[in-house]
Specification:
CATH topology: Spore Coat Polysaccharide Biosynthesis Protein SpsA, Chain A
CATH class: Alpha Beta
Helix content: 25-40%
Number of strands: 9
Strand order of the largest sheet: 5-4-1-6-8-7-9
Oligomer: single chain
CATH superfamily: Spore Coat Polysaccharide Biosynthesis Protein SpsA, Chain A
Shape: globular
Radius of gyration: 16 Å
Distance between the termini: 44 Å
Number of helices: 7
Number of domains: 1
Strand content: 15-25%
Order of helices and strands: EEEHEHEHEHEEHHEH
Protein name: Molybdenum cofactor guanylyltransferase
Bound molecules: guanosine-5'-triphosphate, magnesium ion
Structural class: alpha/beta
Keywords: Cytoplasm, GTP-binding, Magnesium, Metal-binding, Molybdenum cofactor biosynthesis, Nucleotide-binding, Nucleotidyltransferase, Transferase
Subcellular location: Cytoplasm
Largest sheet: 7 strands, mixed
Pfam family, one: NTP_transf_3
Mean pLDDT: 96
Subunit structure: Monomer.
Length: 196
């Protein structure tokens, strides 16, 4: 029996560094940023969920369910993750942000291999230098733990990982795969780099 893996693309933040423009919908090389993420992730998972807290109608046009944070207080990425964990029947949930257009095409397979070989509960990706705190593969059953963490007023994602058997999946061979676009300047730089 093969494992079912679903994904959530987090697009629920306020995008302050992007001037408040909804980052997933901001265009990079004539495509909304989230579409780049969808194209990278789609071949790797069964279902995709889009997590957004505004412009839900625009996000729905990509053809996937749009889920909004259960807690509307912009509590950070964990709020999107916990909502997605309650909306999937999958064995594993892949979590990615909407602002990483060059995600690895072997993201799931390498993270899954790492989890299963180490008997871990979740994996976080690394570009070889830094962990990517919102690129994760986790078991949706961790929802209760995340709920208790948020209910206790905690928000820092790495403190939550520390409570679990978390392994790092290393993508040092693809150092550009996690290029993260947070500002108009970063978007411009990436657009130029892709065009080269
Ligand atoms: N669901 C949800 N996702 C969030 C929230 N805050 C951030 N995120 C997502 O987490 C990921 C990483 O966050 P950032 O890159 O800092 O995005 P951001 O918070 O929208 O941007 P800044 O306001 O500029 O920090 C992005 O995919 C965001 O959409 C939130 O309150 N709820
Ligand atoms: Mg970011």
């Amino acid at each position: 029996m093969s494992l079912q893996i679903d994904a959530v693309i987090l697009a629920g933040g306020m995008a302050r560094r992007m001037g408040g423009n909804d980052k997933g919908l901001v265009e990079l090389n004539a495509q909304p940023m989230i579409k780049h993420a969808i194209d990278r992730i789609k071949p790797q998972v069964k279902e995709i969920l889009i997590n957004a807290n505004r412009n839900q109608t625009s996000y729905a046009e990509f053809g996937y369910p749009v889920i909004s944070d259960e807690d509307t207080g912009y509590l950070g990425p964990l709020a999107g993750m916990i909502t997605a964990m309650g909306n999937t029947q999958a064995d594993y949930l892949l979590v990615v942000p909407c602002d990483c257009p060059l995600l690895p095409t072997d993201l799931v397979s390498r993270m899954l291999e790492k989890i299963e070989s180490q008997g871990a509960e979740l994996a976080v990706a690394s570009d070889g230098k830094r962990e990517q705190p919102v690129v994760l593969l986790l078991k949706p059953g961790l929802r209760d733990s995340m709920k208790a963490f948020l209910d206790a007023g905690e928000r820092k994602i790495d403190f939550w990982y520390a409570k679990h058997h978390c392994v790092v999946a290393d993508f040092a061979d693809q150092p550009n795969a996690f290029v993260n676009v947070n500002t108009p300047e970063q978007k411009q730089q990436l657009a130029e780099a892709i065009a080269k």
